[in-house]
Amino acid sequence: MTQEELFKKLVAHSKEYGFIFPSSEIYDGLSAVYDYGQLGVELKNNIKKYWWDAMTKLNDNIVGIDSAIFMHPRIWEASGHVGAFNDPLIDNRDSKKRYRADVLIEDFIAKQDEKIAKEVEKARKRFGEAFDEAKFLETNPRVAEHRAKRDAAHDRMVKALNDNDLNELRQIIVDSEIVCPISGTRNWTEVRQFNLMFETKMGSVSEGANTIYLRPETAQGIFVNFLNVQKTGRMKIPFGIAQIGKAFRNEIVARQFIFRMREFEQMEMQFFVRPGEELKWFDHWRQTRMKWHRALGFGDTHYRFHDHDKLAHYANAATDVEYEFPFGFKEVEGIHSRTDFDLGNHQKFSGKKIQYFDTETGESYVPYVVETSIGVDRMVLQVLSASYEEQKLDNGESRTVMHIPAALAPVKAAVLPLVKKDGLPEVARELMHSLKFDHNVQYDEKDSIGKRYRRQDAIGTPFCITVDHQTLEDKTVTIRHRDSMEQQRVAIADLPGIIGEEVSFRKLFAKLS
Ligand code: GAP
User: Rounded CA gap, 167 and 477, in Å?
Assistant: First the structure.
């Protein structure tokens, strides 16, 4: 199965089993907007808990807030979003499709790398054991040609983005002979800037309503509450404020399912530090956040850092944590050293002093900020794509199984009476009720036991507990483990301990310290 096929299957599976639905589907959907179904919301809540507790429970100097989505419009002037939160867009006149100019160039750059990898593979086959990859990469003229094209496009793009030179961006597309993926032509328009914020009105129109924005990031709600939290919580620098909430961006090139949406959710933490210490803390959070991702056990090689060539208008260092999705390595989380840009500008625009008095140094200053910012939806996609497997079994059958880490799994256990008679359903229901105060459990008595196991595998339930006739005699049940499919006979009294241990967040948190 190709990665593209796998991704299509994943999207279909997410819908079929109630993880994710297209929004407004009975009205033919709304582009790049999705709804979470009965299992999707459980998975999402568990991911949020993993993040929230890792921030606010494991760090005694990080607290959380929940600020409003609507904010004073001046905030977005101070933050730079009104002036600079733009994407450079270009249209193809033949297909009438619109693209981000930098994404077209990045795709071109990635293609050169693919061509180099193909040359290496071809040569490896030709030379067999005698193949010296390093020497080949150094001396092969075709590799040199691909490299030269890649490096030239990359260097020009970085410069054009930093200089905000839209003509040059277009020229790179023309010079690189990039064609529209739909029409196959090079009939490009000029490149234009497009602001990504959604506007709406507050107050009645007749009274002269104010234009306000749907927040494009949750971070500003943290900045404008810096003094509130610092003073009421008697927080001492360095300290952090965490928040989970919705953000909105009018993404023009929305694609790849829930990867790029117009309404999405962020988990952001702003860590306030002494000026001059920000790069030390940037490095700390870079390592800490990578550990958090890797603790999920999806394989270390599926993650990498991507340091930014073009820094956002507020940053003096920035990196992305990228995960290898079926459509390639893509950003899941951004870690930014935002300097004193935001607090400094809010001080200027609001006219209110935003300073911290450092009792250790005896100085007052505007703190510097290191931010970690991760998309909840991209985490959901990461977990779904890492977990999905179509397995061929030894007995010739096959199953689709979601190896979702037990702590994140939407349903922790399914209680299944072997047959729908002889008092087994009653015992099974009683057992389900005894577990439901601690865990999300399902009861299922429909179809053969094999079919019921498959249904639970497909939604990633770590345990299936079967109540059979022996249960009536000795108060034991079988517990089937999702990944190994092994079955154990255990006492009902031991179930809370076995399940509790496996689905607890403790195991994940232990890997973080
Ligand atoms: N406060 C900084 C900030 O917002 P960002 O890199 O623009 O930085 C942070 O966004 C994270 O939010 C990204 O790494 C991504 O996970 C998520 N994100 C951004 N735009 C998104 C979109 N359109 N759809 C889904 N997630 C998105």
Answer: 70
- Alpha carbon distance 19, 23 (integer Å): 12
Long-range contacts of 147-155 (CB under 8 A, 24+ apart): 147/112, 147/116, 149/112, 149/176, 150/109, 150/112, 150/113, 153/105, 153/108, 153/109, 153/112, 154/109, 154/309
Q: Is the CB of 424 under 6 A from ligand 1?
A: no
Using alpha carbons only, how large is the chain's radius of gyration in Å? 27
**Residue 29: predicted pLDDT:** 92
Alpha-carbon span 465 to 435, nearest angstrom: 11
Consecutive H or E run containing 148: helix 141-163
Give the nearest ligand 1 atom to 376 CA.
Answer: 16
Residue 439 in 3-state DSSP? Answer: coil
Which of 264, 311, 336, 376 has the most ligand 1 atoms within 8 A of CB, as the residue to mutate?
A: 264
Q: Per residue in 121-154, is it b (16+ CB within 10 Å) or e — as a string?
A: eebeeeeeeeeeeeeeeeebeebeebbebbeebb
For the beta carbon of residue 471, count every other beta carbon within 10 angstroms: 22
CA distance 146 to 116: 7
Is 83 in contact with 73 (CB distance < 8 Å)?
A: no
Residue nearest to atom 4 of ligand 1 (CA): 217
Residues with Cβ within 8 Å of residue 8, at least 6 apart in sequence: none
Instruction: Say whether 20 sits in a helix, a strand or coil.
Output: strand
Is the overall model pTM greater than 0.85, yes or no?
yes
DSSP letters, 325-338, are ETTEEEEEEEEEEE
CB of 150 shorter than 6 A to ligand 1 = no
Provide mean pLDDT across the span 71-85.
93
AA letter at 486: E
Please check whether residue 410 is in contact with residue 42, taking contact to mean a CB–CB distance below 8 angstroms. yes
Nearest to 259 by CA among 46, 10, 28: 10
Residue 335 token pair? 């870690």
Pick the atom of ligand 1 nearest to 261's CA.
Answer: 24
If DSSP states are collapsed to H, E and C, what string results for 53-78? HHHHCCCCCEEEECCCCECCCHHHHH
Q: Give the CA diameter of the chain.
A: 81
Say whether pLDDT at 43 is over 70.
yes
Q: CA torsion, points 57, 58, 59, 65, in degrees to nearest 10?
A: -30
Non-local CB neighbours of 238 within 8 Å, separated by 6+ positions:
61, 271, 272, 273, 274, 277, 281
Q: Tens of pLDDT along 315-367?
A: 899 999 999 999 999 999 999 999 999 999 999 999 999 999 999 999 999 99
Consecutive H or E run containing 134: helix 133-139
